[in-house]
Design goal:
This protein is of the alpha+beta class. It has five helices and six strands. The strands form two sheets. The chain has a three-stranded antiparallel sheet. The chain has a three-stranded mixed sheet with strand order 2-3-4. Strand 2, helix 2 and strand 3 form a beta-alpha-beta unit. Pfam families: CBS.
Amino acid sequence: MTLVQMQPRSANTNPVHRTVDDAMEADGPQVCDDMTVEVALAVMAGARAGHLLVCDEDGLCTGLVTQAQLTAIRDSTAYTDRVRLRDLLGDRGPVASPVTTVAEAEHAMRYRRLDALPVVDDQGSARGVLALAR
């Protein structure tokens, strides 16, 4: 797998020192962590997105959920229609800073077996998503 480049790279950008900010996808659909799994799946389908950025009541990014994760939860025997996204995420998940190098982020994603990683600013607000190509 290799990283997807969603934004054109500047001619001055050195590939060795490329940052996450150079390679991330623009900010995608964001939802509140009190949303239920069913509603999140509907939002995902409507947005034709494979993942959603999840934010808390203060607008801070708490993680990212994928369609595969939500479908697996919905299809499990423990599922109820009261399960909220905050119940799935627990503590704030792994995130990247816009100044993290692409190489560092790719290494962390492979180590944690992540297909996508939220990119947040210094205040914790979502800036976008870094995704691995399939």
